[in-house]
Amino acid sequence: MAALHEPLFRGHEWEYVKECIDTGWVSTAGKFVDRFETMLVDYTGISHASAVVNGTAALHVCLMLAGIRQNDEVICQPLTFAATCAAIAYCGGLPHFVDVSPTTLGLCPDALETRLNETAEIVDGVCQNRLTRRRIGAVVCMHTYGHAVELDRLAALCARWHLPLIEDAAESLGSFYQGRHTGHWGVLSAVSFNGNKIVTTGGGGAVLTNDPYLARQAKHLTTTAKLPHRWEFEHDRVGYNYRLPNLNAALGCAQLEQLPNYVAAKRTLAQRYAEAFRDVANVSFFTEPSGCCSNYWLNVILLDHPDRSARDAILTATNDAGLMTRPAWQLMHRLAPYALAPHGDLKVAESLYDRLINIPSSVTLGESHG
Amino acid sequence: MAALHEPLFRGHEWEYVKECIDTGWVSTAGKFVDRFETMLVDYTGISHASAVVNGTAALHVCLMLAGIRQNDEVICQPLTFAATCAAIAYCGGLPHFVDVSPTTLGLCPDALETRLNETAEIVDGVCQNRLTRRRIGAVVCMHTYGHAVELDRLAALCARWHLPLIEDAAESLGSFYQGRHTGHWGVLSAVSFNGNKIVTTGGGGAVLTNDPYLARQAKHLTTTAKLPHRWEFEHDRVGYNYRLPNLNAALGCAQLEQLPNYVAAKRTLAQRYAEAFRDVANVSFFTEPSGCCSNYWLNVILLDHPDRSARDAILTATNDAGLMTRPAWQLMHRLAPYALAPHGDLKVAESLYDRLINIPSSVTLGESHG
Ligand SMILES: Cc1ncc(COP(=O)(O)O)c(C=O)c1O
Ligand SMILES: Cc1ncc(COP(=O)(O)O)c(C=O)c1O
């Protein structure tokens, strides 16, 4: 079976993990968490990183620190993994869906602008939904399959509407927009190191931010909100046990050492796919939007026309043949928990759902062969 | 430095963890999670176990599945680690503190009965606080430092008051009450495998239950609430990414193999401490309550009389000398986030806070020497 995305361990993974076991430092203390965070800062150029148990937890922290609370609406795209919306729900918020762009597969600035003009107003400096009377608390964009959204336009729109921008960069470690790593434009950004991502810690994630105050808050909140003391256990707020164990960070350090090679291999694979599909009728290979240097986390082919039965025929044939392929996630506005969530016109996402297929994208497939 | 509790790896830890790395199964799939859950079931005799990222997540799941919702009160003890209360807060609930017993250090059945008689009533089958008009949704007891509370009496009281009992068994893996493992009396119970616990997965926890329906719900909720399908991603409720990574489960399998030996060593250490402190004036070593066969997770000495400055003098002297000791956690009703939580008389807990000191308790200290 050719998997959609398989992890690859052939650097210092075993050495670092063994060091944890040999020294007994596998849990909440140990040097690999700090080293992992430093490596993330060095690679992304974003000044602070807090390693956490997974990408979902990272998103939850981003939303809490952006101030999302009971009954807030949070604007996001319907084409995403369910964790984006779940994290909003954990804060008591409700997603408010805005369509994606056909050129990025992520949140569309035009659709966002239209939707805000139609439904939002600023009251006493706060963005409000005129129809529902709820506060709109933030915008979360997601870099679908590793392709960056138009961050400059989205960031400008968010600033104009007093909305903090959060980047769900779970899939875009190694993806750059206008020369800077994704995650730079959001007030806070979330990364995932799940086993299906470009690099993995088993389970893991990180909160990235350029704001030193938010970074301190992220660390405090994710480490049970305990106040420093030689022996007393005192906590000044409801905290979370979201810190990444040292064992998982050790794996992550070895993986981050490989990241530039992995990105290169994945870009090579994407180029091969692009050539292979060039002359195939009725199907096109999705390539990175302008301004984005993508990690091509999961490669995408698109049917020229929405056709659910053609899509399913391809999914069946390929999976039967041992080539793992997958459609887009079911769109979020169609899931039971978000049935009552407000949304604008979502015709691009709905069309993509009927046209999109992910194809095998493991690093090894992109390495030179022959 | 003699630590309070150090992990010990000298069984198959390496072998199993290396197998994960060699096969690439470090994350959400792989055989060690299943094996770890089966081992937990075999050891505890509780029929279902769901492995999760940590004990805090396990408690959160227990409370969600017990139906705790916005504005519920949940009865718990003030002498506990902050996670017990944090998990209540995650559900939108408020702790309602009831005193501990001096013989168990955990929730006191007499205090619970008194408090319920004073403040609660059953309205349409639902337990309500007559004073605050809030629903009382559950009782959480915690087996402090590994010593079981009086589970039979607590379970009977909970049944009488229509309250689900949840056991925070984070510290009591290896502790038995009336011949059965702790966790048996609760509708749901939570275990922790943090690095400071008797066995560790780096970070980890488990939800235990004898109810097959709740067990299925626990698994579904902790694995993003995804519906099974060959390729579609559809989720029928707001789910959580709480599953334990396979890498951590691998470590846990090797650790569980050692658990009976570790319990034996810790019980030997406790016996030595008991003898050593027998004739020491003004201080006594805390021994397991009747009916409980304790794992003696953290050993406890108690000053005969509450004396915070005597306590602090001992803490300072021992820590300065490289023997790690620690007081009880700051009592929960004294923490800022729970300042407004209802509570009964808490004089036992308050006295214990001024008298209690944890002393070094690692497994290796209890192994035969000489
Ligand atoms: C877009 C998106 N957001 C969030 C997540 C959540 O990350 P994790 O699985 O590490 O919790 C993922 C990955 O699973 C994702 O693809
Ligand atoms: C009583 C109690 N409850 C809950 C927890 C939470 O477990 P974890 O640290 O694995 O999240 C712990 C341990 O830290 C604990 O001692």
TrEMBL record, chains A, B:
Keywords: Aminotransferase, Pyridoxal phosphate, Transferase. It comes from the Bacteria. GO terms for molecular function: transaminase activity. The keyword Heme does not apply. SUPFAM superfamilies: PLP-dependent transferases (SSF53383). The keyword Lyase does not apply. PANTHER family: BLR5990 PROTEIN, TRANSAMINASE. It comes from Magnetospirillum sulfuroxidans. This is LegC family aminotransferase. Pfam families: DegT_DnrJ_EryC1 (PF01041). Belongs to the DegT/DnrJ/EryC1 family. CDD domains: AHBA_syn.
